[in-house]
Fold:
Amino acid sequence: MIQARVLIRPKEGILDAQGKAVEGALPALGFSGIEHVRIGRIVELEADSTDQLEELCEKLLANPLIEDYEIETVSG
Amino acid sequence: MIQARVLIRPKEGILDAQGKAVEGALPALGFSGIEHVRIGRIVELEADSTDQLEELCEKLLANPLIEDYEIETVSG
Structure:
């Protein structure tokens, strides 16, 4: 089995509402010097082969209109 | 500035509802041989130092009761 990790991030230029919410909360919690917060998803899974992973991302895991994804395989 | 990446995952033994939903959707979409899907969050940010990152995770980014987090720094 292949261990795969898919990182899904909002595309550049797309509003990252979660990231903005975190940035907005930082000063009230006493944090400073932290910026450019972007929040995405990480999907970890085991697969028989890497063949289907691209299609899986396009169809199910990510929304290609507003999100970029990156597939990392740990063992082959 | 330090580029940091925080990976936040449901703890072992905690129900991962999103992961289960993805697993449930796989057969209907024609995927097979994919299992153990776990879904978490990835937070990417820039910070002046790494000092605050642990506290940031505990207080704001993760829920330590049900989530594990892992901090990776890209450049120091």
Observations:
- Chain B has a mean pLDDT of 94.
- Chain B has two helices and three strands.
- The longest strand of chain B covers residues 34-47.
- Helices of chain B lie at 17-25, 53-61.
